[in-house]
Amino acid sequence: MAFTRFFRIDPKGVHQAALLLAMSSIANGALGLLRDRLLAGEFGASRALDIYYAAFRIPDFIFSLSLFFVASTAFIPLLIEHKNRSVREAQDFFDTVFTFFIMTISGMIIVAYFVMPYLIPKIVPGFGIQAQLRTIMLARVMLLSPLLLGASSLVSSIVQSSRKFFTYALAPIAYNGGIIIGILYLVPRFGFLGLAYGVTLGALFHLLVQVPTLLKLGALPRFRFIMRTNPFQVMYYSLPRASALSVNQLTLLVLTSLASTLGAGAIAIFNLSTNLYALPIAIIGLSYSVASFPIMAELALHKDKNLFFEHLLTATRHILFWTMPVTGLVIVLRAHIVRLILGTGSFAWIDTHLTTASLLIFSFAIVSQSLVTLFVRAYHALGRVREPMIFNITAAITTMSLAYGIVFLVQKYYTIELFFTWLFRIHVENLPNIIFLSLPFAFSVGTFINALLLGVTIFRLNGSGAIRELITSAMRIFCITIVVSFAAYGVLKIESAIFTDDSFFSLSTFVGVLLQGGGAGLVGLLIGGALSWFFDIREFQEIKQALSSRFNRKDLLGPDIEHI
Question: In the chain, at which end, N or C, are there fewer CB atoms within 10 A of the end residue's CB?
Fold first, then answer.
């Protein structure tokens, strides 16, 4: 069957690869939503869930440091360059980098284990002594995850450079699967510590699921160090990318520290709403970015500038085509999304309202963050590693300064507090700690600045024509987004007038929320698709062609040629 062939055969073009990665991201997103629903139902927006999310901060920071060795944006172009000379040289390069990574990260983990009691009180100053001790306990167990995930990232680079996207797409699904096993089976046996065991198990699954493909490619790494392969090349090219991601983690550390002082549940709500906002980014932005990067790296290596920017422009247009309508639907359906995913068990009504408000603010960063994932890879494919680092640091400083500034002003001046309370209560009423919403607000502003600086600068390298074409496409898509959003909103109003609280479709039931929100979203998407077809939107026609090509047997068996 054509449908099953879609999953069995590796994609040939960027649209097909992006579609495969998007479908796997949907599956992974479903597991991620299940994970968050289980966590919210079991613990609610409580200090216990704050502890769980705070425990990620140091392991995640170490993982960002591991990207000095495993950043795909640096490693894949170098690997392709070595492979073009000889397969043997590429294998030697991979072995050396892998060995150097294992030795270095193992040392970092050992140091972090012993300094953890000194770091955690600085990261979560709002926690009591017992909460800090529990955070230390969980974080120490999670320290194995950066080692496993870093090794898996190196393996993923081999898989991506060979355009074997299927197993790469399975890795995050396996990771979430491990965490869910921890929630369902390890927590009842080991208590709260079972959450940390689940995270480590998920990281192990993330690595193991890609090993069969690595064996099939004959690229299983050996523990050896060959100096002539110059592994420090990876560190040189990874420095800006790893520095930028380390700055991102530092930003999250700062926001976590602030959230810990804003009451129990603030860290949990920030992370839960972040996970909801990140789902369309993973499905759309990351899928197109990952699918595009190996091709952009090869085009840059062959110095085919025109085709490179044509490819980049195509990927950018398609990210806008998907993310802008999705952003509109998330804004309209935000309450339904939060109630559907998190509204269960110990997750209180007030937690639902605050998470809904947080998701509203985060939703304005969906487009910009999706574009950031693509633009950063484009810079690295071109070997221009300084600009993304500078822009990322600028955005991070903006985010941290804005978050600290708003919290400081609100705490110091009552009139400022009244203003921000009024501002945020446009969307939420009678909720405590409204100032918590300054954190997603600062994050969204920083993300927008990052995307703007990255996008304008890189497209100017090829003249102003691409920017004008992009603006034209964005305006057409924006008009469709407005229609889609108002259509979904109108359907919600009609549904609320038809279905009473006593009916089967009441919003007090899971089925009612699903049917009302799903119905409104579906109508919006169908209208958007019809408008795209009627007005012959270019991106819509390209997607139709990619889908037709993917399910066509003759094309599936044809040569491996990339068509832009």
Answer: N
- Least trusted range by pLDDT, from 33-42, 187-196, 380-389: 380-389
Give 401's contacts (C-beta < 8 A, 6+ positions apart): none
Nearest alpha carbon to residue 87 among 230, 219, 233: 219
Q: Is pLDDT at 395 greater than 70 in this prediction? A: yes
Q: How many residues does the chain have?
A: 564
Helix (H, G, I), strand (E, B) or coil at 535: coil
Does residue 540 belong to any structural domain of this protein?
no
Q: Name the pLDDT band for 549 (thresholds 50, 70, 90).
A: low
Residue 104's domain spans which residues? 47-242
Whether 239 has a pLDDT exceeding 70, the answer reads no
Token digits of residue 27:
């599956």
| Residue 432 CB-density burial (10 A; 0-12 exposed, 13-18 middle, 19+ buried) | exposed
Given the structure tokens 């990574």, which residue do they identify?
A: 101
Residue 302 lies in a domain: no
Whether the per-residue pLDDT at 313 is higher than 60: the answer is: yes
By the 10 Å C-beta count (0-12 exposed, 13-18 middle, 19+ buried), 272 is classed as buried
379 Cβ neighbours under 8 A, 6+ residues apart: 385, 387, 388, 454, 458
Q: What secondary structure letter does DSSP report for 384?
A: -
Crossing angle of helices 366-382/72-85, nearest 10°? Answer: 30
DSSP string, 441-480: HHHHHHHHHHHHHHHHHHHHTT-SHHHHHHHHHHHHHHHH
437 neighbors 362 (Cβ within 8 angstroms): no
**Cα(356)–Cα(369) distance, integer angstroms:** 20
The reported pTM is: 0.81
Q: pLDDT digits over 434-480, tens only?
A: 778 889 999 999 999 999 999 999 988 887 677 888 888 889 999 99
Q: Which residue has the tokens 């009609």?
A: 494
Give residue-wise pLDDT tens across range 323-333: 999 999 999 99
Alpha carbons 424 and 266: distance in angstroms, whole number = 16
Secondary structure of residue 414 in the 3-state scheme: helix
Q: What is the DSSP letter of 225?
A: -
pLDDT of residue 55: 93
Average pLDDT over residues 126-133: 91
Distance (Å, rounded) from C-alpha 400 to C-alpha 406? 10
Report pLDDT for 232.
Answer: 63
Going from the C-alpha of 361 to that of each of 400, 437, 525, the distances in angstroms are: 16, 8, 22
Residues 145, 63 contacting (CB under 8 angstroms):
yes
Angstrom distance (rounded) from CA 357 to CA 361: 7
503: left (phi over 0), alpha (psi -120 to 50) or beta: beta
The pLDDT of 39-66, averaged and rounded, is 88
The tally of domains found in the chain comes to: 1
Tell me the torsion sign for CA atoms 123, 124, 128, 131: negative
